[in-house]
Design a protein that fits this description.
- This protein starts with a strand and ends in an 11-residue tail after the last strand.
- Helices cover 25% and strands 24% of the residues.
- It is an alpha+beta fold and 985 residues long.
- The longest helix has 24 residues.
- It has 6 domains: 207 residues, Rossmann fold; 114 residues, OB fold (Dihydrolipoamide Acetyltransferase, E2P) (Beta Barrel), CATH 2.40.50; 69 residues, OB fold (Dihydrolipoamide Acetyltransferase, E2P) (Beta Barrel), CATH 2.40.50.700; 212 residues, no CATH class; 53 residues, no CATH class; 129 residues, Nucleic acid-binding proteins (OB fold (Dihydrolipoamide Acetyltransferase, E2P), Beta Barrel).
- Belongs to the RNR ribonuclease family.
- One of its GO terms (molecular function) is RNA binding.
Length: 985
């Protein structure tokens, strides 16, 4: 059967043309029920018959099927994910709406449908001759779709009853009007809450009910927050420039503050106070009303991280945080405004812990997210006694005006609080790191074993197996993605080669393996495990440039003179045979041992000498040498818990490898941009706005140094000149503060920006990319493909040359990079320990000192006073000088202190690392030193003085290698909450 619609359209030129749309209807679409005899026996029979009723409901004693409307799927997907719900009909109408409204929910729904044990059946109602309906004149699309679902439910009941099959088909909807119309037509209909409450042995599902669709208690109370503007009001406000749109960023240091990043304004817009925050959650796209300049304020100097443990009720009792900033000079105030509407929510599922109600039988509790930037969430649960010892996942449903906190529902439990595997799972989920096992489809694209290099491969590649090539990496490296060589040429110049694992040979465009690698974007490292971007067969075996193994590589070869000036550059795919896989220390010992003069050692010495000259040339051009405290964890080989920490040692060989990786990346960037000016994948580091440097300038000035930030070169000179003989660690701390002022380096597509915007501020180079780590970064794989096409070693494909698709890919890569920069589990190390450590003050706040512990690369807060507490010692805060004073004792940035570190486990739901002052001694505030009960461990400034930590590419997530396991210990690399960086380009 065929139906058609005709309508007329007018072109821009004034011509009228007729459009006819045809819609085909069929009479052979089956219902999917095993009980049905009319549709015939087909493979698609999914719904069980009356002898296998599935879920048991007190509302429906007979066997039954469920028909779901769109909002049920969108809002209650966590309920649908439970195995107890089966025999479910998903009409095509519902499926199409879900696909258009939420890709995440659609993906989850398809996974459920594809599970044969769940008995979910897609009914193609839009092409069934008895269930397809036309949209009535004046009828909105939502009403038409609701009517279509009522028709589907009615047809199923009629279809089965005519065959005398005792199965009821029930419409599940939370739409009051739809439910009312269905009842008038005699169609069985329930809301999701009614159905869940009727199920036997399914009380746990009640916790998972989304509250978005139900009338909430307390709606009649006076609202606490202003009403959000409607979409049309927001649109008109943005069009008239009375409103500004941007992304809301919640503060980690003060839950009553946040900022909005707007493209149209150079500075962030400051938001202060709950009413001005107006229910925005970190990541939301919001509409902001900018205050007049006389109402501008400055970020609070008060650190407010934790709210009251008990639920204070629906009241706003915040202190007037604006008042404390009125004394700040106008020149230091920042644009300030308030959020008046939400353009797009960016809610997700959140990990955290349950904070039980103080009332014994109360089912309403607070959920405390692991991410400090997310507010507490009110949920309802009858399982509080069980869940209070678990890490759990909660989804936010709504945030009514009358509620102090958003409302949500329990999704699932992850495991016991404090368990290492559970805490790792929290880290991965909170930072949206894909970590499921590789699917069979992905694994099917791996090469078949045994894998060997064939004669055809040799003919298509340059054979470099005769060269003295070696790799230099951290100890225990298994994913070796680069190797080096250097030899003297007959003309007296030197040949230098960087050889990178040819991962793109094994990962072909468009395959499931390629799509999975693009989605993961990078390898992520935890304390004792690695979440690979590609399967281990590639990452640790076939792609890894292991010694004594023939491997495919992508080589970059330079001819240079003895002053490191480049004469020629060449790229080609090759076959290499690495002579040795050296650690940084092993390579350094070879270089330093004058008795060793074999070809490999000579190669390393030449590379090291050239690297020093390359580095000097870079620094002379204004490249920055910044700092980030890096540490190395030792992990027990059996329990995998951290048992010791030591500061990272940096050798000349670290810098040697860095310099040649930098040079390779720059050389490749120039080559691919020349061949593909519109679609090259590059990496830029934007110059920070001058306002970002204010904390650095103030910190330097307080110590008697003027930091010039007018250019990268001036900044580099100022930082190197700021040295203190009495505090060797001072310069490193200053560089750490400078690192905080930087923007984030990002991937971009060349055709989307003007060439001056390609500049990499940290490296002081006009063009840069990532080529040298394809095992752990997907961006490098794309660059390999571009380079291969540019030298004729491979064929191109449409997506590679599509700058819009490349731009979208860059967006995902940058997002995954940001998410990979998470903190590590220091709580596991400090359990049952109380330690004294030397630290340095990084920032002075109104109520606290922020302390850096160099040994651990750890920052923490030492509170001088807390909200609601009467301090025994009153400190005087000077906002102008950024100092705290008590009598003759003054705390300034970069001053050294001694603190006690311990883990507060009094509340198992929320373990906290506590900082207490030991020295200088302040009676009534400092704690006494007890040498018998405290484990002490000093920190040597010598490590920092002799081996400065260099950060070449700002804010780039680092690489960590697996570590060889000594007896009972397994050292793991970290970098201030991140993995030890093999190379920072």
């Amino acid at each position: 059967m065929l139906t058609s619609k005709s309508f007329y359209r007018k072109t821009k030129g004034g011509n009228i043309y007729k459009v006819v749309r045809e819609h085909y209807l069929r009479d052979d679409i089956w219902c999917g029920s095993e009980a049905c005899r009319k549709c015939g026996r087909r493979k698609q029979e999914i719904l069980l018959d009356e002898e296998n009723p599935g879920a048991k409901s007190t509302l429906f004693a007979m066997p039954h099927y469920l028909v779901l409307d769109t909002n049920i799927v969108l809002n209650q997907i966590d309920i649908l994910d439970e195995n107890i719900l089966c025999n479910v009909i998903v009409p095509q109408t519902t499926l199409n709406e879900v696909r258009h409204r939420s890709s995440n929910v659609y993906k989850k729904l398809k996974e459920i449908i594809n599970d044969p044990h769940r008995k979910f059946y897609i009914f193609i109602n839009e092409h069934h001759k008895d269930t397809y309906i036309e949209r009535k004149h004046g009828e909105i699309i939502n009403d038409r779709n609701d009517r279509a679902l009522r028709i589907v439910t009615h047809w199923y009941n009629t279809h089965l009853s005519k065959q005398k099959i005792d199965i009821k088909v029930i419409l599940v909807t939370d739409d009051h009007e739809n439910k009312s119309k269905a009842e008038k037509l005699g169609i069985p209909v329930v809301t999701m809450v009614e159905y869940v409450n009727s199920l036997e042995n399914a009380g746990f599902l009640i916790d998972k009910l989304s509250k978005k669709s139900y009338i909430l208690d307390g709606d009649a109370r006076a609202p606490l927050f202003p009403c959000h503007l409607s979409p049309s009001q927001i649109h008109d406000g943005i069009k008239s420039a009375t409103l500004i749109q941007g992304t809301f960023l919640a503060s980690r240091e003060n839950f009553l503050e946040g900022s909005v990043n707007c493209e149209s304004i150079e500075k962030f817009i400051l938001i202060q106070g709950r009413e001005s925050l107006n229910r925005a959650i970190d990541g939301d796209t919001v509409a902001v009303e900018l205050f007049s300049e006389d109402q501008w304020s400055a970020p609070s100097e008060v650190i407010l991280i934790d709210e009251a443990e008990d639920d204070p009720g629906d009241v706003i009792d915040d202190e007037n945080i604006l008042a404390e900033n009125k004394k700040i000079p106008t020149v230091e105030k920042t644009p300030t405004g308030r959020i008046v509407g939400i353009i797009r929510r960016k809610w997700r599922q959140y990990c955290g812990i349950l904070q039980r109600s103080a009332l014994k039988d109360n089912t309403h509790h607070l959920f405390m997210p692991a991410e400090r930037k997310i507010p507490k969430v009110r949920i309802e649960s009858k399982q509080a006694e069980t869940l209070c010892t678990q890490r759990i996942i909660v989804a936010i449903d709504s945030w009514p005006r009358h509620s102090r906190y958003p409302l949500g529902h329990f999704v699932r439990a992850l495991g016991t609080i404090g368990d290492k595997d559970t805490e790792n799972e929290v880290l991965l989920l909170e930072h949206d790191v894909p970590h499921s096992r590789f699917s069979d489809e992905v694994l099917s694209f791996l090469p078949k074993l045994p894998w060997t290099i064939t004669d055809s491969d040799v003919n298509q590649r340059t054979d470099l197996r005769s060269l003295e090539i070696c790799s230099v990496d951290p100890p225990g490296c298994t994913d070796i993605d680069d190797a080096l060589h250097c030899r003297e040429l007959p003309n007296g110049n030197l040949e230098v080669g960087v050889h990178i694992a040819d991962v793109s040979h094994f990962i072909r465009p468009g395959t499931a393996l390629d799509r999975e690698a693009a989605s993961r974007a990078r390898t992520v490292y935890l304390v004792d495990t690695r979440i690979d971007m590609v399967p281990e067969l590639l990452s640790s075996d076939l792609c890894s440039l292991k010694s004594k193994e023939e491997r495919f590589a992508f080589s970059c070869i330079w001819e240079v003179d003895h002053n490191a000036n480049i004469i020629t550059t060449e790229f080609f795919k090759s076959i290499i045979l690495s002579r040795a896989s050296l650690t940084y220390e092993e390579a350094q010992l070879r270089i330093d041992d004058e008795r060793q003069n074999d070809d490999l050692t000579k190669s390393l010495r030449s590379l090291n000498n050239l690297a020093k000259k390359l580095k000097k040339m870079r620094l002379d051009k204004g490249a920055l040498v910044l700092a980030s405290p890096e540490v190395r964890f030792h992990v027990d080989s059996e329990t995998h818990d951290p048992i010791d920490i030591e500061a990272k040692k940096v050798l000349e060989t670290n810098s040697m490898v860095e310099e040649f990786m930098l040079l390779a990346n720059i050389s490749v960037a120039k080559k691919i941009l020349m061949e593909f000016p519109e679609c090259s994948m590059l990496r830029r580091h934007p110059e920070p706005p001058q306002v970002n440097f204010d904390p650095l300038i103030k910190a330097g000035r307080h110590q008697g140094f003027e930091i010039n930030t007018s250019s990268g070169m001036e900044l580099a000179k100022s930082l190197e000149a700021a040295q203190k003989k009495d505090n060797p660690y001072f310069n490193t701390m200053l560089k750490i503060v400078a690192t905080r002022c930087m923007m984030q380096a990002v991937y971009f597509t060349s055709g989307m920006l003007q060439e001056p915007e390609f500049f990499h501020y940290g490296l002081a180079c006009p063009i840069y990319t990532h080529f040298t780590s394809p095992i752990r970064r997907y961006a490098d794989i794309i660059v390999h493909r571009l380079l291969a096409v540019s030298i004729g070693a491979d064929a191109t494909y449409s997506e590679l040359l599509d700058k819009k698709k490349s731009h979208a890919l860059c967006h995902n890569l940058n997002y995954r990079n940001r998410m990979a920069q998470y903190s590590t589990l220091f709580q596991l190390f400090f359990r049952n320990k109380v330690q004294l450590e030397d630290g340095y003050i990084l920032f002075v706040r109104k109520n606290a000192l922020q302390i850096l512990i160099p040994k651990f690369g750890l920052e923490g807060t030492l509170y001088l006073s807390k909200k609601g507490e009467v301090p025994e010692v009153n400190f005087i805060f000077d906002a102008e000088k950024h100092i705290q004073q008590y009598g003759d004792i003054i705390f300034r940035p970069f001053d050294q202190v001694t603190v006690q570190l311990s883990l507060d486990r009094s509340n198992i739901q929320h373990e906290k690392l506590i900082f207490k002052l030991v020295k200088p001694v302040i009676p009534g505030f400092s704690i006494p030193y007890d040498s018998e009960s405290i484990v002490t461990s000093g920190y040597s400034d010598k490590n920092t003085k002799d081996s400065p930590i260099e950060v070449m590419d700002i804010s780039e997530a680092p690489k960590r290698k697996n570590i060889n396991t000594p007896v009972n210990q397994k050292p793991v690399q970290l970098s201030k909450g991140k993995r030890k960086r093999k190379k920072k380009y």
